[in-house]
Design a protein that fits this description.
Elements lengths: L24 E5 L6 E7 L10 H12 L2 E9 L8 H6 L4 E9 L5 E9 L4 E10 L4 H17 L8 E9 L4 E9 L6 E6 L3 E6 L5 E6 L6 E6 L5 E5 L5 E6 L5 E6 L6 E6 L6 E2 L7 E6 L5 E6 L6 E6 L6 E2 L6 E7 L5 E8 L2 E8 L5 E6 L1 E6 L5 E8 L2 E8 L5 E5 L4 E7 L5
Parallel strand pairs: 2-3, 2-4
Antiparallel strand pairs: 1-29, 4-5, 5-6, 7-8, 7-30, 8-9, 10-11, 11-12, 12-13, 14-15, 15-16, 16-17, 18-19, 19-20, 20-21, 22-23, 23-24, 24-25, 26-27, 27-28, 28-29
């Protein structure tokens, strides 16, 4: 009899861990309505570092769909005198330059500048000393700075994502809860087992992931601390324990529990204390999600005869129906600013990703064959699971539907995505 494996392998930083077996490949399709032309030069002496930082920056900006990236075709140091007019004449509105040098202690000094070629001014600059394993992260941070300075919106390139990877085997599968960079690189295994793992959910501070595991032959909710490596059982009530979702302040979670018979929404403190039932219907209520301000809970209920999305006060009260179109509406997710609802709707026999402006009620269809949506922390993108060609993969779409990405791997299926928060 094969012994079950369950290894919680995170070390003291989020950038250390056990590498997963295969990295994720990103395919990009579509661009935003108006792209910002940016020239990115190779950083002076960047070959001394483990990662080519300028290449990471270019890939991030291109993946966003917001920028038209122009290759400067030369290495330009942040200390060099640059003819900005020449770059403006080539069609670039901004120029990225920088340098990398090895420090005596083995770290790398990374410097960068962002120049406005139209106004002939400097928009931003950074100078950081980073270890060898953090040079990729530094490239993402610079790309974040460029995104924010040129769009006014915080960048999400240095954030992390989690997902479940299902590895096929003879007679059985293995399941990995994986954490990776937002571009799918730098995969690390947070948990591993022979039984299903699903519904990962990030804490607001990015240090923990709650998830459900069947390792004890029933659904139990665990909280994994990604910094200390410690794991705790959050909920092991009678029946099913599922669908963990954090409050915006990180002090409580919503759970879907069947301890009373039919599945209902409960609230519990992060240490497992103070369990309180929120919904009290005779029907199934599940998949609870907090609003951005933590005062409203969105959830799925069949109280109208089919699965639809409702909302109610976190303090209780009468629920209000939110969705009316489509045979089945499930998996509600609220954007960080609380203005947009993303969910999965079954229409004409197809499960599609929709987004709704909550103020106007206007809906937009974003993708077909979608499940399990998750907003980026800046609210501009939605990651979801997609099954095409018999293999489960992840995809990303901008909230306006213009930019689409597909993340796939050569080995196994990847599903159950959850986009992590901004890291402080």
């Amino acid at each position: 009899m094969k012994k079950k494996l369950h290894s919680l392998l995170f070390s003291a930083t989020l950038l250390m861990g056990v590498a997963a077996h295969a990295q994720v490949r990103v395919e990009i399709a579509g661009v935003s309505g108006t792209q910002i032309p940016v020239a990115v030069a190779a950083f002076a002496d960047e070959s001394v570092a483990p990662d080519q930082i300028s290449s990471i920056i270019r890939a991030d900006l291109e993946r966003s769909g917001v920028f038209k990236v122009i290759d400067a075709r030369q290495a330009i140091s942040d200390s060099a005198s640059v003819d900005l007019g020449a770059f403006k004449a080539s069609g670039a509105d901004a120029l990225v330059v920088g340098s990398v040098s090895r420090m005596p202690d083995g770290r790398f000094q990374v410097r960068y500048k962002l120049m406005d070629t139209v106004k002939q001014t400097q928009l931003s600059q950074l100078s950081d000393a980073v270890g060898a394993r953090n040079t990729r992260l530094e490239g993402h941070r610079i790309a974040d700075d460029i995104y924010e300075k040129l769009t006014g919106v915080r960048g999400i390139f240095s954030t992390r994502i989690s997902y479940v990877k299902v590895n096929p085997g003879r007679g059985n599968h293995s399941y990995e809860l994986v954490v990776a960079d937002a571009d799918g690189e730098n995969e690390q295994i947070a948990a591993y087992g022979r039984e299903s793992i699903f519904s990962p959910s990030w804490s607001p501070d990015g240090t923990k992931v709650a998830y459900v595991s069947l390792e004890k032959q029933k659904p139990i909710v665990y909280v994994q601390n990604l910094v200390t490596g410690q794991r705790q059982i959050l909920s092991n009530e009678k029946g099913n324990n599922s669908a963990p979702a954090w409050s915006p302040d990180g002090t409580r979670l919503l759970l879907s529990l069947s301890k009373t018979g039919n599945t209902q929404i409960f609230i519990v403190n992060v240490d497992g204390s103070g369990l309180r039932r929120l919904t009290n219907g005779a029907d199934i209520d599940t998949e609870g999600q907090f609003s951005g301000d933590g005062q409203t809970v969105y959830f799925v209920s069949n109280r109208s005869g089919g699965a639809q999305i409702y909302k109610m006060s976190v303090n209780g009260g009468q629920p209000t129906r939110v969705t009316f179109n489509g045979r089945e509406n499930i998996s509600p997710r609220i954007s960080p600013d609380g203005k947009t609802l993303a969910w999965i709707s079954q229409r004409d026999g197809v499960y599609c990703l929709y987004a709704m402006d909550l103020a106007s009620g206007q809906e937009q269809r974003l993708a077909e064959g979608a499940t399990e949506p998750s907003f980026s922390p800046n609210g501009k993108y939605i990651m979801y699971a997609n099954k095409g060609g018999g293999r489960a993969s992840l995809a990303v779409v901008s909230v306006d539907g213009r930019v689409k990405q597909r993340l796939s791997t050569q080995a196994g299926n990847i599903k159950e995505p959850s986009w992590g928060p901004f890291m402080k």
